[in-house]
């Protein structure tokens, strides 16, 4: 006898048409949950909240119920002459969303006979809404952590995060289940809050949706050897120095053929600073900086490349960037610049055609080989499909009700 579908309320700030890869986890859970007996009702913010940071390439299925409410943005709505007090952004700038989200959620819970609550961080306000609803309704609540709280791995922001840490303690104490995307992140929380965290936690990794690539085909640039890095660069954790060092060595190896090399840095922050750095390394002719683009265009740029690059420094040891799953779904060689035994390193070493290293010499040799040999790789990545990850979530939901 078929299972009668039950409704889950999904509380997520990051949801289409918001741009960026942060929407993918919630979107794919919502897309596939109905396959496993759960009907999603998504509660998110009004489209205007995202300003220009929108991407309409992610189409929603008609059976996904989406409700949007006004979100007060402290940096805009509480600003005077373009300036605001920093304390108004604690624990995050979107705390005002809770005032419209909670009443709407209570209505949705009654309307759809919601059986479980689900909220997702890194916007702490989502978890605050989940916490309030859990207290009001006594419904089971799953708190999903796409990232650990930043102050737990980045000491530079610890002193600024007192409010976030206060609410995080409430989440850990009161959520029915905690979900992390890596074992390292779960271990971090167990170290902070004690082993009781392990008793109520699960790990559901990120993944890829193979359907995202169905409408795309590879287009090669004439006589170019293209390296692709998608996503922001930071001064802490995602600096391109090692990659630039490797390119300088590659230039010495290839000689005049280096004119065929192009590094495509898409969506990079600190572009001006890194342009100067590329000039200092004498590789600026090979480095192209591009602004953030819609998700499907990013995937197209990925497919058009000859080598894919990820930079994941020590500060991000407990995290795995979502793009690495998309990379693994290709047959292209991959360079991962990350410390040994980081969460990313452990994942990628299980697959062929991937170099995980922080040594410029090793990377230059790998790139030179890719330049001359054009090898493609077959990777068994079925278990990384978003549908498989959603089944894990559905099983967790079943255990809560």
Would you mind describing this structure in some detail?
Pfam families: Glycos_transf_1. InterPro entries: Glyco_trans_1. This is Glycosyl transferase family 1 domain-containing protein. It comes from Thalassotalea marina. With 401 residues, the chain is α/β, with parallel strands linked by helices. It contains 14 helices and 13 strands. The chain has helices spanning 24-32, 74-77, 97-112, 124-137, 162-174, 183-193, 196-199, 241-254, 271-280, 295-304, 323-328, 343-348, 360-373, 386-400, and strands at residues 6-11, 38-45, 65-69, 114-121, 141-145, 177-180, 201-203, 225-230, 261-266, 287-290, 307-311, 334-337, 354-356. Strands 3-2-1-4-5-6-7 form a 7-stranded parallel sheet, with helices on both faces. Strands 10-9-8-11-12-13 form a 6-stranded parallel sheet, with helices on both faces. The longest helix has 16 residues, at 97-112. It is globular and about 70 Å long.
